[in-house]
From TrEMBL:
It comes from the Bacteria. This is Universal stress protein. Residues 15-150 form the UspA domain.
Length: 177
């Protein structure tokens, strides 16, 4: 029996749903959710929500399917990059479902939850842990336990360096591989 199949027979009911973004909190949430799925034998459901950059209201006035396909592709690429940055790629030791959803993040996460046995994992900025709009929404509407994962703290000198950085500083380092 394979490792994933063996864990599935010992698994906890439900799934682990994680809101994925490329923020530090989102990457930390993805790592924590993968670990929760690994330990419990649950399916990991990674959700990346997106909306047209001009907003749904403006898009409704001038719909363009090609433009929407472009931004859907960008959202899928961001989800793939988040896995690469957080975990070095998709985890091979858990069952994984990836969802790129055109919706507000809170609603997309709420809709991904299948029942009270699920675990919803979201990342937050440490200073806004209890005030974030998405956090408040999912806690009120998810219908399952919510694990809040703070972004890793940065040292003061790192924060100062980031505040002083310009686009030129990043371009000087060359393209990322």
């Amino acid at each position: 029996m394979s490792g994933v199949a063996a864990r599935r027979s010992e698994s906890v009911a439900g799934q682990v749903v994680v809101g994925v973004s490329d923020s530090l909190g989102g990457l930390a949430a993805l790592r924590a959710a993968a670990e929760q799925a690994r330990r419990s034998g649950r399916v990991l459901v990674a959700v990346h929500a997106w909306e047209p950059p001009e907003g749904e209201g403006m898009y409704a006035r001038r719909p363009d399917r090609q433009w929407a396909r472009h931004w859907h592709g960008e959202a899928r690429a961001r989800l793939d990059r988040a896995f690469a940055e957080a975990l070095g790629g998709p985890p091979r030791d858990v069952d994984l479902v990836r969802r790129v959803v055109r919706a507000r993040p809170g609603r997309a996460l709420r809709d991904a939850v299948a029942g009270p046995d699920d675990l919803l994992v979201i990342g937050v900025h440490p200073r806004r842990m209890w005030r974030g709009r998405i956090h408040r929404y999912v806690v009120a509407h998810a219908g399952c336990p919510v694990l809040t994962v703070p972004a890793p703290p940065l040292a003061r000198h790192e924060l100062r360096a980031l505040r002083r950085a310009s686009a030129h500083d990043f371009a000087a380092a060359g393209p990322a591989d």
